[in-house]
Amino acid sequence: MDKQKETIEKRPPVVVIMGHIDHGKSTLLDYIRKSNIVEGETGGITQRISAYEVLHKNEHGAEEKITFIDTPGHEAFSKMRERGAQIADIAILIVSAEDGVKPQTIEAWKTIVESKIPVIVAINKIDRPVANIEKTKTELAENEIYLENYGGTIPFAEISAKEGTGIDTLLSLILILAEVENFTANPQTDATGFVLEANLDPKRGIEATLIIKNGYVKSGMTVAVEDTICSTRIMENFLGKMIKEATFSSPIRIIGFNNMPHVGGEFKAFAKKSDAEEYAKNWKEGTINATQSKQGEQSDKKIIPIMLKADVAGSLEAIEKEIQKIQHENAEFKIVAKGVGPITLSDIKNLSTDGDILIIGFNVNIDRSATEEAERRGVDISSFNIIYKMTEWLEEQMERLRPKIETVEVTGRVKIIRAFSRTKERQILGGKVTEGVINLNSIVKIMRRDFEIGRGKLVNLEQGKLKTSTVTEGLEFGMMIESKIEIVTGDVLESFSVMQK
Ligand code: GDP
User: Fold this and answer.
1) Which residue's alpha carbon is at the smallest distance from atom 17 of ligand 1?
2) pTM for the whole thing?
3) Which ligand 1 atom sits nearest the alpha carbon of residue 486?
């Protein structure tokens, strides 16, 4: 019998806004953020994270939290779904009363239905003179989106994201729906949740925004996302303020991942770093399971094993010292076996590892049977009789075997000046190269408010109606880009190269 009764608390809803381009997703997100943010703190934030929390009074007059995913377009959301992540609890389908139901409205609707999350429809732009609310409702019904009192049960609000009309009602509807759905979580367990975005900050390192769906995280814990880990030493809330702890359904940003975590990947927080490492290791080996047992300090570094045989004890010691000196920030040698005398068959047979192990003989003979066995196992035996030759060789091996560190360098930046047209995955845009150069067929990061929101491929470049393969700094040009993301005026495209160091 399970004696430990789980503590269960109400969990604030996580909301995503979806809909056709230009129907007002960003405007709505901006309005809600500006008018309802917790503590009214908005100043001084240089790098906002792509989710925020607001407070709103429920029907009983008590303030409750709502978390909004602040990534217009449903790219992030779709990515999560692909990975099976249930990040959002409620979707808002926004439809402009001016334009009515459009292709992406239907696309968004399908996504929502497939992910089986409850939905609220926001009929937007009701302040516009040409807005036609009734016509919009009819179009929704024609597409089997049945609103309350219009043949269905979907709650809806008539709003103006620009002027703020109806936003209170919309927020109240969210809280009512959350109450009905009864979202809960356990405040006393180690946090789990999902990665909303991840990027490499050239100054700060790899950072990620996480949404906590259960439990708590506090500084000193280590977070694992699949096979990557990060300490919670630098943990920020959505305002970019350093925090020491957080719980559901807060967005947090942590900095210092050892590798780029997957967007949409599940994260788990561990009290012990070694448990997080164990989890990441198991994930890598494809043997992930819930057992988090192993204790003790483990190094972040790759271990390169060495077997060492030398002619006399004195040289063995001297060589060991030399080996210890050769270190790298992400790898180190470890002598797993050593001895005095020739390299024999049993030395090779006793090796527990193949592959990367280095077998070194210093001033010793190698038995023929040992050479044969080594060949069979695919390991090399190297012999030396001069120490510095051996250390030179070991330095080369370190370079060859250590994990490579990838650095991403921006090679060109483009500011989008105009968005002309868009079909499903292709857009025609006008832009200006503000930095570096841009080349045809390169993959670019799509940056919005300093955050990467997706990637695209430049499939055509034109200058003065002529096709070109390169555009340099200061020039304006037209482009066709392939991307699932809706790129809008003001976005920045970054081309980059990845270098291994
Ligand atoms: P998104 O592509 O869905 O994020 O749409 P935006 O939020 O960028 O809005 C597209 C355009 O519609 C912008 O020019 C907004 O100012 C405008 N807009 C959005 N909501 C409203 C609204 O409620 N009333 C009016 N009049 N304009 C709006």
Assistant:
1) 24
2) 0.60
3) 2
